[in-house]
Amino acid sequence: MRRDYSVNALFYDPIKNHLIDYVGAVADIKNRNLRFLLDPIKGFEEDPVRVIRGLKYATLGGLKIRRPLMKQLKAAAPLLSRVSRSRMKEEILKIMNSSDPVGIWTALYKAGALAYILPAIAHHLQDGSRRAWQEWVASIESYVTARDADKLGKEGWVYALSAPILKAKLDALLVIDDVLLRWDACVSMIKELYAPLEIENVMVYASAEHYLSDLGCELPRKSIRTPRMRGNRAKATRPTSTPTAAKTAKSTKSAKNAKSAKSSPQKELKYTGLAFS
């Protein structure tokens, strides 16, 4: 069987109750060494997610990444832009549900991989000060605390990764006086931060609600927070026209004709070749 990293290539024999090591994985674990088993060019080309997996193994296992492998990981990082949106979102969830999300995100950032996972967030962190990074880390740590205490809301990791960046755009939101326009602007900002990923609307809206509530901003009624719901509400409240006397008379006449037709026997039509008779 093909395995990418040696630490992921151990097998267990439940009958003899011992480990099977074909690639020297036990020695790598003892030496705290992360070793890539495949050809570095073909291996990362086949599956760019191996970049994320390697940095995750190193962080969670306390393993060292030697200089040649780190160089290969950094060179392969741009390949992550090829990964499908659904799979990338799955990898983000794995990171956020791990025992050390901060450590993994830090490793991804230093390796240049964050720019191909969450481009807008990476751009903000690169252009921002050290404080911007500290606030982002603090937000993830708060998420972990809430997760471990089983106190997470629907917004969960979406809010945790985006809130510090939204805070930097505070002035752009507060200058908007209209409640609904401010809500739409906040929702758009969150979606832009996660592009090209597609985040479920329920999580985006919950994150916007959480953030604007923290600012003390008034929220629009739940019934009009989404464009679709606003459209449905407009249709439901659209006034219906009252039928005129002429329309009423016409409908009454049609009803009488229908009743008369129903009561009188229908003449059977026969096809003569050119017409019905």
Condensed summary:
This protein has 277 residues and is an all-alpha fold.
Labels describing this entry:
277 residues, mainly alpha, Hydrophobic Seed Protein, 2 domains, two-stranded antiparallel sheet, 14 helices, 3% strand, elongated, disordered C terminus
Describe the structure.
The protein has 277 residues and is mostly helical. The chain has two domains: 1-114, Hydrophobic Seed Protein; 118-234, no CATH class. It is built from 14 helices and two strands. The chain has a two-stranded antiparallel ribbon with strand order 1-2. Helix 2 packs parallel to helix 4 (67-76) and helix 8 (130-148) packs antiparallel against helix 9 (156-168). The longest helix has 19 residues, at 130-148. The chain is elongated.
* Poorly predicted runs: 261-277
Strand order of the largest sheet: 1-2
Q: What is the total number of structural domains?
A: 2
User: Averaging pLDDT over every residue, what do you get?
Assistant: 83
Q: What would the principal axes of the Cα set say about the shape?
A: elongated
